Amino acid sequence: MASLLDPSARGRVILVGAGPGDPGLLTVRAVEALREADVLVHDGLVDSRVLDLAPQAHRISVAKQRARHTLSQDAINALIIAHVKTGAIVVRLKGGDPFIFGRGGEEVEAVRAAGLPVEVIPGVSAALGAAAEAMLPLTHRDWSSAVSFVAGQCKGLSDQDWSGLAGKGRTLVIYMGVANCPAIADKLMADGVAPDMPVAVLERATLEGHRAIRTLLADLGDLVEREKVKSPAIIVVGEVVRLSDAEDKLIQWARMAEAAQ
């Protein structure tokens, strides 16, 4: 744990990883922090069952969605700091792990710059939770000795160099990529990944309505459209996908292959 603070201290921040959704995947320390909180500043994707573990806390939602944020990151930082300065214990509750595409590093920087104490409690990342539920090993001695995590909604996707991140012996995990699936598939194939590389889409992992489906890379964009996949979802590219319990959705790919012959 990064920086365990005096449990009797007032006026402090605790960044807590809420995991992928199921409250059973919270760490013991995360539950303790929720019970200590005076103010709970939480993401929109945090499950209500997790929020209910802090009934005494004043809740503030800072939900973010694609192209629409309740508050800017600077405003969130200022909000946290303002409450801490009143002497409150502020729990900043973030989906997954605070330091994996959670902007936790920016919030720690802001709190430290204000001269305030901060603790970070890691959580089960969305990728790890989703992969475990789908029985999809991200590494495997026979299939993959490396795994990479990327954000699929980054600007300038065509300018990114992903050539070494997916392919034989490697697994690529893409966060926040549902809306950009066609461009992501084109990008990976342009960077040398085979069109018939297995790919899985893990939707709403550990939550009600979750599903895991798989196809081949060239079919990824069509799969997401015809299956009406919605965020939150993780995309996994690599041979390890073959080992998972994900449901095969290869019909469209088979038709494409037949048409090309």
UniProtKB/TrEMBL annotation:
SUPFAM superfamilies with a match to the protein in the record: Tetrapyrrole methylase
EC id: 2.1.1.107
MF (Gene Ontology): uroporphyrin-III C-methyltransferase activity
A Pfam match: TP_methylase
Keywords, sorted A to Z: Cobalamin biosynthesis, Methyltransferase, Porphyrin biosynthesis, S-adenosyl-L-methionine, Transferase
Pathway connected to this protein: Cofactor biosynthesis; adenosylcobalamin biosynthesis; precorrin-2 from uroporphyrinogen III: step 1/1; Porphyrin-containing compound metabolism; siroheme biosynthesis; precorrin-2 from uroporphyrinogen III: step 1/1
Protein's name in the database: uroporphyrinogen-III C-methyltransferase
Record gene name: cobA
